[in-house]
Specification:
It is a single chain. By secondary structure, the chain is mainly alpha-helical. It starts with a helix and ends in a 6-residue tail after the last helix. About 10% of the residues have low confidence. 22% of the residues are buried. It has four helices and no strands. It has one domain. It is elongated, with a radius of gyration of 19 Å. Helix content is 79%, strand content 0%.
Length: 139
Amino acid sequence: MRIRTILTGFGLALAVVGAAAAQASIADLMKHEVNPAALAFWAAGNDPPENETTAAAQARWRAAEAGVKTLKAEGARMQAPPYVLPGRWAEYAQAMADTAASAEGAIRARDAEAAFEAGGRLYDSCNGCHKAYAPSRGG
C-alpha cells in the first residue's frame, strides 16, 4: 500500500513536471518558430513599406512563403506530444496550419489582398488560442 502511494505521488509529480516542461517548450516554439513565421505571413498582406525596393518586396514575399511552410509544419507539430494540451488546443493548431495552407496560392501569386484576408483568419486562430492558453502577463 505504501509503495502504491509513493508511486502514485511520483506519477503525479512527473505529470506536473511534464506539463510545466510542455508549457516551456510551447513558449519556445511560439517565440522561435510560430511568431516569426506569422509576422512574415502578415507582412505579405500589409501595405508595403514606403519606398520599398523590388528586391525588398521579393524578400518580403519569400519570407511569407517560408512563413506559410513553418506555420503548416508547426501546426502539425503542436498536435503531437509533448505539445498536446486539453480543450480546443488541437483545433486551434489545425486552424493555423489550414489557414497557412489555404494562403499558399495567394502568397505565390503575390496577391496582397488575398494574403490580407487569410491573415485575418490566421489572426482569429492565434487570438482565440492565446485567450485560452497564453499565460497572463502581469496581474
